[in-house]
Amino acid sequence: MAKKSSKSTTSPGLQLGRAVEWPDAPEKARLDRVPNPQAGTDYLVRFTVPEFTSICPVTGQPDFAHLVIDYVPGRWLLESKSLKLFAASFRNHGAFHEDCTVMIGRRISDEIKPKWLRIGGYWYPRGGIPIDVFFQTGRLPKGLWVPDQGVATYRGRG
Prior knowledge:
By secondary structure, this protein is an alpha+beta fold. The strands form 2 sheets. Strands 2-3-5-6 form a 4-stranded antiparallel sheet, with helices on one face. The N and C termini lie far apart (64 Å). It catalyses: 7-aminomethyl-7-carbaguanine + 2 NADP(+) = 7-cyano-7-carbaguanine + 2 NADPH + 3 H(+). Catalyzes the NADPH-dependent reduction of 7-cyano-7-deazaguanine (preQ0) to 7-aminomethyl-7-deazaguanine (preQ1).
């Protein structure tokens, strides 16, 4: 019988596995990273945030988006609970669609330093105009399969 390790699989500094307060602003939110156990292999990780919300900085009205975040990890993986908390921190944050989308992409990229990252921000219409925002860092490793982000274009006219 193999000896079971008493070492925890999560670091004590992570938000994972314990109660934490919801951050009330993106700059107060922490993004956690964990070591990539497959660091020598190129593969794609996708996070989908279908109910993202923020506030219009001009009108104060809520804005809604479906975000798709694809990345090719290097040494680090993005820990999903911290991403959930980070996304929720935008609920009362006033910023334009473009700013929110690019800010999220840059922040994730700065924290985990992926080989490649792209984020698609598919914003729901306000005033009849949907806005889609795309941001990318790095170069996609050769030969890596990246599926379509799978978000249908807006079909509000029939």
